[in-house]
Amino acid sequence: MNSWQETVSSTPPNTGGAPACALCDLSHLGLIRVSGTDSRRFLQGQLTNDVNQVTGELAQLSSHCSPKGRMLGSFWIFQRGDDLYLQLPRERLPAILKRLQMFVLRAAVTLDDVSDALARFGLAGECAESLLPFAPTAPKATLTRDGITVLRLPGDRPRFEVVGTAAQLTPLWSGAAERAQVAEAGFWSLLDIRAGVPTVLDDTAEAFVPQMTNLQLIGGISFTKGCYTGQEVVARMQYLGKLKRRMYRARIGGDEFPAPGTELYSASSESGQGAGRVVDAAISPDGGYEALVVLQISSAEAGDVHVRDAAGPSVQLLGLPYAFPTEDA
Q1: What is the pLDDT of residue 207?
Q2: What is the pTM of this model?
Q3: Element (H or E) spanning 265, and its range?
């Protein structure tokens, strides 16, 4: 157990409800540091977004695709000093790091797993700003002072991530824990779900083209940056194809957790690929589960979606914090 784990374990999380002022250890997320003079040029050829837009004051969402345009990983990208950092679920880090390293060749770039070298925690709620030494004012904005980086994330309440060494973050965590309620990682996933931000996990790798997860609607794809792995498929979908599946937020009943990758059923679906799949899910404080699901648009409109089969729990669609373009309707 490292020093940061010792710190957070001293304040065990609350296991129920939705804290109005929430503090969450983010050690379940992995972190890849990208350094070297060719860092941006290298990432520009691998990721769906325009990495040149990332600055010390602005983070971005992005993804890494297979040559077939299927998402292998999704990230928050932010800058600290001269280095760029890719944050993703820790379970996906080994595969993504190995794959990216395959393409480095002679580029002056180094990729390192720094998941344990930098501590991270999240704060959410109206209390959040008052518990931080400084705070960005707009979603996706970042600030770094004295080695501590604070990112403001989208959501239905003020939400921040704090990044730094364990020594730097320990007093901040301890101070915040005096007022905030410590929450489990699942609560942070719930806030991502409510923000409509997709997460690619092991069970959903290569399951979705980026547009199926609404990545183009939340600033996760650049259509002007030039070539990257999978770019032809993503561009063809945008300009020549008709989107038949998109991501929705949903409430799912029942006692069984609808794990990422779980298949969804619709009697109206005529697709051999099924009606859709669960992207991510979390326990809802209102009962049951809240989830992001990729569905056939026709099945979503029919309103007859269930988990696995017709006898499974019903999937009730909820609103997202952003609108679908009318041309997709």
Answers
A1: 97
A2: 0.95
A3: strand 263-266
